[in-house]
Design brief:
Flavocytochrome C3, Chain A, domain 1, alpha/beta, five-stranded parallel sheet, single chain, about 15% strand, Methane Monooxygenase Hydroxylase, Chain G, domain 1, about 575 residues, binds succinic acid
């Protein structure tokens, strides 16, 4: 039995690959491909349990708007896509991992389209594509206009439902990964019972794939849904797995500044929208030659600083330049961006006639569980894929619309490996050859994180607002050594209180209430680890910006950490 936790595109891809879905062959594997899977191991369909904390399809994937970047068009090449990915990653991408992403990614996207993924097409049936920031080609495949994730999730989850080897378990919270004698032995879950109560359940499994997504709920302003609370990353940390590059958290430049901080896709800027300050000045042209289509970290920082300079007032996103090519702008927006169009109108804006207020919001975590090219973690039997993993493709700053692609490619690889690895298979972490100065180590010496501090009786258990505000103030878009040291001390005390209060059994009466407490503990665990990593990285690079170390230091490599038992 293989347990997959999480049902975004990484979890769905892993489940299909492990369960032996015939549509996904090994033929597409490149580079170390087949040879890196257990030599000669006979792969056969495995029984898969797919565990979801909420309803089956609720995930970050479901809410993704922009699309899936892939070099499937005639004027493009995976090598060009790889070059853009490497450039956005500011020297911390792994070349091999990126080549796999763009090359196998194009195959996966073609396969899914052939299998019926309902992407947007023109009247002649050609697949449509959009442009997003820091891409040298229009290569972002979309569906449902700006509802790419929803269409993808529904189409691929239908394949999962149709697979007799996969059982879906909804409303089941991952409390911990069970490790025995240094090898994964299963998972401890809490399952919602028919009355909304909590039923503990231990599932025995020699392979567990974590595909639990990100942790945008660390912050008060986020594009992520409520399920994004870092549960898999926290469980992996508690189990002793190595994690990497947790200091790199991506803030999306344009979430609605009011309401629920709904994402206004980068694809909107790709179609020509511009950013204005409070005086109506287009400030991005002063900052980067690519203006609004500069890499995401550049635009997020510019928006943040502009907001600071104007007393916190949001910047404005103006779509009127699109009218040149789309004279009926209202109709164009309704058709191309139906979700954003409906949402902005619900908030009382007619964006075809007036700019809308936007601000940066937490969006995507580049760091995560350190894996090899097949999702294997440092604990035998534990695999990770998607946002909770650090495969080496996102570096210090993820390129737009590469995340669904990563989930497809590396979820699939993790599923194949989990199905075919022998018990003695060991991970082979990538040999990152991206050192900017020859001879430098590729990773910093691993940091040990201590999460067993004694509880200070004066510290009450933290609620979500306390966590969010601490992270935003001290581990936000722009950091300082002082703010990060404060975060480490405060989050450490909050985590000690949460650990002391921790119960995963029946003492919490209601599933929903218990889940909130467990999520808060997980957020404190991963937030604390992120603050330590950010405090240790004394430079500014990609999404990690420090006022006290404003320049890039090429001698600093990847950060690796694990929790000391
Ligand atoms: C967006 O639509 O702007 C988000 C796409 C992404 O995060 O890659």
């Amino acid at each position: 039995m293989i347990v997959v936790v999480g049902a975004g595109i990484a979890g769905l891809s892993a489940a299909l690959a492990a369960a032996g879905d015939e549509r996904l062959g090994q033929e597409g594997l490149r580079l170390e491909g087949r040879a890196a899977l257990a030599d000669g191991a006979k792969r056969h369909p495995q029984e898969v349990l797919l565990v979801c904390k909420d309803e089956f399809v609720e995930s970050n994937t479901y809410h993704a708007q922009g699309g899936v970047a892939s070099a499937i068009f005639d004027d493009d090449d995976p090598a060009l896509h790889a070059a853009d990915t490497m450039a956005a990653g500011h020297g911390l991408c792994d070349r091999t991992a990126v080549d796999i992403l763009t090359d196998e990614g194009a195959r996966r996207v073609r396969e899914l389209i052939d299998d019926g993924w309902r992407v947007d097409r023109d009247e002649q049936g050609h697949v449509l594509r959009g442009l997003e920031a820091a891409h040298c080609r229009s290569r972002v495949v979309h569906a449902g206009g700006d509802a790419t994730g929803k269409v993808l999730e529904l189409d691929v989850s239908a394949m999962v439902k149709a697979n007799p080897n996969i059982t879906v378990l909804e409303h089941a919270f991952l409390n911990d990964v069970v490790v025995r004698d240094g090898h994964v032995a299963g998972v401890r879950l809490s399952v919602r019972d028919a009355k909304g109560g909590v039923r503990p359940r231990v599932v025995t499994a020699e392979r567990v794939i974590l595909a639990t997504g990100g942790a945008g709920r660390l912050y008060p302003y986020t594009t992520n849904p409520s399920v994004a609370t870092g549960d898999g990353l926290a469980a992996a940390l508690r189990a002793g797995a190595q994690v990497a590059d947790l200091e790199f958290y991506q803030f999306h430049p344009t979430a609605m500044a009011i309401g629920e901080h709904f994402l206004v896709s980068e694809a909107v800027r790709g179609e020509g929208a511009v950013l204005l300050d409070e005086h109506g000045h287009r400030f991005m042209t002063d900052i980067d030659p690519k203006a609004e289509l500069a890499p995401r970290d550049v635009v997020a920082r510019a928006n943040f600083r502009t907001m600071q300079a104007q007393g916190g007032k949001p910047v404005m996103l103006d779509v009127s330049p699109m009218a040149k090519e789309n004279p009926d702008l209202a109709e164009f927006l309704r058709h191309r961006f139906p979700t954003i169009d409906a949402y902005t109108r619900e908030l009382g804006f007619d964006w075809s006639k007036e700019p809308i207020p936007v601000a940066p919001a937490a969006h995507y975590w580049m760091g995560g569980i350190r894996t090899d090219l097949f999702g294997r973690s440092s604990i035998p039997g534990l695999y990770a894929a998607g946002e909770c993993a650090r495969t080496g493709v996102q570096g210090a700053n993820r390129l737009a619309s590469n995340s669904l692609l990563e989930g497809m490619v590396y979820g699939y690889r993790a599923g194949l490996a989990a199905a075919s690895d022998r018990a003695d298979a060991t991970w082979r972490p990538q040999d990152f050859d991206n050192s900017e100065i020859p001879g430098l180590p590729v990773c910093q010496k691993p940091m040990t994180i201590h999460t067993t501090a004694a509880r200070d009786a004066m510290v009450r258990p933290w609620d979500r607002t306390h966590i969010e505000n601490t992270m935003w103030r001290h581990v936000g878009v722009i950091r300082t050594g002082e703010s990060l040291a404060t975060a480490v001390a405060e989050l450490g005390a909050g985590l000690a209180a949460a650990n002391a209060e921790y119960h995963d059994g029946t003492s919490a009466a209601e599933y929903a209430q218990a889940v909130t407490e467990w999520e808060n503990r997980n957020l404190l665990t991963v937030g604390y680890a992120a603050a330590i990593a950010a405090n240790n990285r004394c430079e500014s690079r990609g999404a990690h910006t420090r006022q006290d170390y404003p320049t890039h230091n090429p001698t600093i490599a990847h950060s690796i950490a694990y929790v000391m038992a």
